[in-house]
Design brief:
5-stranded mixed β-sheet, 27 strands, Heat Shock Protein 90, 629 residues, Ribosomal Protein S5, domain 2, 3 domains, alpha+beta
Length: 629
């Protein structure tokens, strides 16, 4: 019998040396220069700074400096701050214990500094009130100082931290750094997010000797916050944002969201801040999509900056080492608050559409180069064959398109159609109704039996009659359905849908919510559900596909978006078929009735896919078209 294989020696458990511990922590917290900037700027914010300046070279890898005018540190404080888990931000309670769930600050000064110092050459210079300035040098975890120094900060007190040759002590990490441009963009994005959270602090960023941005401090008011958001997210957002303000069960929501007609092709312009901390939470995309699902196509995304404030005990900010993710104790309450507040604000916006609609329309009006022979007399005037007075010859067609067929009672022929320069338009004079009495003005003409032209007090409004009436019919259908409830149709043979155990649990946990929308679901053994009724509005449908989509929605967004989107699709199609068609002639009373109904109906400024229902041109815009301005 062969001898048994020799046993391997038992591994010995060892305590890692401090420098290795610091480098491991640096790998968790400081994975790139932007992360180091985030930690240092958050420390400056916690120190009470009112002005923060960041300077970087080569994306922050060669050099980065963070200067603030906060409370500063003494030499002894700087030494202690470089110890592991040393902090001034957590204090023991009456029982001597520290509550890690009750955190009111941005981070741990003593956590970031030793981690950064262990992988770089770092110089700390600081001056506290009533203390002399001191300087301390750290290289790969080795500390020199503190020693007296001259402090040339932005205030009487403050801190200046200079980090050179980041990751020089860990060459393997340098191989994973991206290009200088990418690292600079990451630093810029990180600092902008922090600047959005604190409008009352001035921020400045310089890269390779060039000023990237400089944001002045603003009052800690909604107006001041909007000014800061506009400086970062753009003037268009500042002009077309609606204020969000709501609270529920100890959670307060504030911020601004863009009108539906101001949208983007991705969700990068959606920001969430929890207790002043910028975070990235996958729930945000889901709740904003749910709130805007009535107004935007699936591939379009609104702009928003939302601020959630709640008791620190009800949110865990230590889910991620870099604190970029959070976990709410009652995520359902936060989700419902955001969706409800956004929908309420959008409804309060009424018929308002973004100002970008007019600018986009003006941008599409291209000035054609004038040819030398365009205005020759022979082009615009022809002599009569028999001689005599010359007759004008229009260079454009004056033939009218035929209107779409409609019941005789639906067509209103005009009393007389005057010449409109080649457009199938009619002027409908309206007496006794000043144009400036109504936001959308008074109807003056209909062009091509499709567009209503109204005159306002300081410009004109062009309305797409089909898109506008489609939204009005759709909103009326939603109101009627909310009042009468969703009618159900029982399935003759219940449909059994097989799912995984997790998917089944998620679906069954929402049976009451789904029943309110007309979908009756019951458990059917292990890993399956039974669908007994569907909304009558849907008719024949793929029940199994809908249920599986709902399970995916509950997993990703914690909301049943697929069912609600199906409702909107069906009702949108019905509204489209029941609305005023393009090509139908409207008289003055009908056109003005459409305008007045748009003014009194929420969301009438955009159709169901986020396209504008009207374009407003100010008189100044029209004058610019003709070179009068």
């Amino acid at each position: 019998m062969p001898d048994s294989a020799p046993l391997s020696p038992r591994p010995q458990i060892r305590q890692l040396p401090p420098d290795a511990i610091n480098r491991i922590a640096a790998g968790e917290v400081v994975e790139r220069p932007a992360a180091a900037v985030k930690e240092l700027v958050e420390n400056a914010i916690d120190a009470g700074a009112r002005s923060i300046k960041v300077t970087i070279e080569e994306g922050g890898l060669k050099r980065l400096i963070v200067e603030d005018d906060g409370c500063g540190m003494s030499g002894d404080d700087m030494l202690l701050a470089l110890e592991r888990h040393a902090t001034s931000k957590l204090r023991p309670g009456e029982d001597g214990r520290i509550d890690l769930l009750n955190i009111h600050t941005m981070g741990f000064r003593g956590e970031a500094l030793p981690s950064i110092g262990s992988v770089s050459r770092m110089t700390l210079t600081s001056r506290a009130d009533g203390e002399d300035a001191a300087e301390l040098y750290v290289e790969a975890g080795r500390i020199e100082g503190p020693k007296p120094a001259a402090f040339a900060g932005t205030g009487l007190t403050g801190t200046r931290i200079e980090v050179r040759d980041l990751f020089h002590a860990t060459p393997a990490r340098l191989k994973f750094m991206k290009t200088e441009r990418s690292e600079t963009m990451a630093v810029t994005d990180t600092l902008k997010r922090l600047a959005m959270a604190r409008a009352d602090i001035a921020f400045q960023l310089e890269s390779n000797g060039r000023s990237v941005f400089r944001y002045a401090a603003h009052p800690d008011t909604p107006e001041g916050r909007l000014e800061r958001l506009g400086a970062i997210m753009g003037r268009e957002f500042r002009e077309n944002a609606i204020e969000i303000e709501a609270d529920r069960e100890g959670v307060r929501l504030s911020g601004f969201a863009g009108l539906p007609t101001l949208n983007r092709g991705n969700a990068q312009k959606q920001y969430l801040f929890v207790n002043g901390r910028p975070v990235k939470d996958r729930m945000l995309n889901g709740v904003i999509r749910a709130a805007y699902q009535d107004f935007l196509a699936r591939d379009r995304h609104p702009m928003a900056a939302l601020f959630v404030d709640l008791d620190p005990e009800y949110v865990d900010v230590n889910v991620h080492p870099a604190k970029t993710e959070v976990r709410f104790r009652d995520a359902g309450n936060v989700r419902g608050l955001i969706i409800g507040a956004l929908r309420h604000a959008l409804a309060a916006a009424g018929h308002r559409a973004s100002t970008t609609v007019a600018s986009q329309a003006l941008g599409k009006v291209q000035a054609e180069p004038v040819q030398a022979d365009v205005f020759r007399p022979s082009t615009l005037w022809s002599d009569r064959p028999s001689g005599g007075a010359a007759q004008p010859v229009m260079p454009v067609s004056t033939q009218r398109p035929q209107p779409v067929s409609a019941p005789p009672s639906a067509l209103h022929e005009p009393a007389g159609d005057s010449y409109q320069g080649g457009l199938s338009g009619r002027v409908e004079p309206v007496q006794g109704e000043p144009a400036d009495d109504f936001p959308l003005g008074v109807a003056r003409a209909q062009l091509h039996e499709t567009y209503v032209v109204a005159q306002t007090g300081d410009g004109i409004v062009i309305v797409d009659q089909h898109a506008a009436h489609e939204r009005l019919v759709y909103e009326d259908m939603k109101r009627q359905m909310a009042e009468g409830g969703v009618k159900r149709q029982a399935l003759l043979i219940p449909d059994v849908v097989e799912l995984s155990e997790d998917e089944t649990a998620r679906i069954l946990a929402r049976t009451d919510e789904l029943a309110e929308l007309g979908l009756e679901i019951e458990p059917f053994g292990l890993g399956a559900v039974c669908v007994r009724a569907t909304p009558a509005l849907f008719g024949e449908m793929d029940v199994a596909g809908l249920v599986r989509d709902l399970a995916d929605d509950f997993a990703e967004y914690d909301a049943g978006l697929a069912l609600k989107e199906r409702f909107e699709e069906v009702m949108g199609n019905m509204a489209c078929r029941g609305s005023v068609r393009a090509g139908r002639r409207l008289n003055a009373e009908e056109m003005n009735a459409l305008l007045r109904q748009m003014e009194s109906t929420p969301h009438s400024g955009q159709c169901n896919h986020g396209r504008p229902t009207y374009v407003e041109l100010k008189l100044a815009d029209i004058e610019r078209l003709f070179g009068r301005r």
